[in-house]
Amino acid sequence: MKKIEPISDPISIKQSLSTFKQGDIDLERWKLLTMGQYSHNSLLSFQNDWQTFLAYCKEVNVSPLPAAVTAVRRFIEHSAKTRKASSIKRYVITISLLHRVHSLPDPTRHREVRFTLNRLYSEKADDAAQANAFHLSHLNALQRQLGNSDRLKDIRDLLIWTLCFEGMLKRSELAALSFHSAIKEQEVYLLVVDDQRIELSPEASELIDRWLLVSGIIDGPLLRRINKHQQLGDAPMDHSSIYRVFRRAATELGMDGTLTFSGQSPRVGASVDLSESGKSIKEIQQQGRWKSPAMPAQYVGNKQAKDEAMDKFKRKIDKD
């Protein structure tokens, strides 16, 4: 938050408090209060968010300025029923700003309010839209559809989908793969990711051989951009190009508009498939290289395991 000097004159504080308690503050007044440090859109947000808080305080008959800690906490809980976490975060920023500028104790800094916010953000994160799972069935369908293609882009994209699923790769891990990350031992390849060796299937190994043959890559990034003329570039894939590859997967499967695949989708789908095959959360965590079992547990819908992992993680942070 930007540094705004509090009003120092007692008479000015009293007049300003009276004005802001009434509401309907024009943008010029907000600009003056914030010393011209915020954009027009930010001032509009302050104005709208403060009106929302004022309306709540009027409804429950409590003071908005200064606001009690309990009033702010209940306002947050009330707003959480219908508002996104980002909106509530803005409300809290606005309430905090007005208290600090008027030299009043900031109720949003109280541990009771912070605890409520942390709990809310955790709950809202659970409710956030998760990437659609990219399952083995999706990969198999794409292999049947594009497996015989000689097009450079088809071979590359099929390799990307396969490596991401079998290796449970993050986008950053995929982009960081080099020619030397794929080590051939006998008939199959081992993929080296963060010092971990992932044994690939014969199908994935065959795709790597085909890709290296048609691309001519002998050094540098393993996966690279391809322009509209089917010319291979020197630069590695970035996050936006990886996103487009997975968006293409949904299109090729005839699910465009129904499913939204992203670079995270194979990790979600592989976690679910492994769980359904009998793998434990711990085994999935190790295979996906997660530091905590919380995320794979969330992916497979094991909320209890996720909550236990999060509690353990928080206790570790507290000790540190």
UniProtKB/TrEMBL annotation:
It comes from the Bacteria. SUPFAM superfamilies: DNA breaking-rejoining enzymes, lambda integrase-like, N-terminal domain. InterPro entries: DNA_brk_join_enz, Integrase-like_cat_sf, Integrase_catalytic, Integrase_recombinase_N, Integrase_SAM-like_N, Phage_Integrase-like_Recomb. Residues 129-314 form the Tyr recombinase domain. Residues 304-320 have a biased composition (Basic and acidic residues). Pfam families: Phage_int_SAM_1, Phage_integrase. Keywords: DNA integration, DNA recombination, DNA-binding. The keyword Disulfide bond does not apply. Residues 282-320 are annotated as: Disordered. Transmembrane segments: none annotated. This is Tyrosine-type recombinase/integrase.
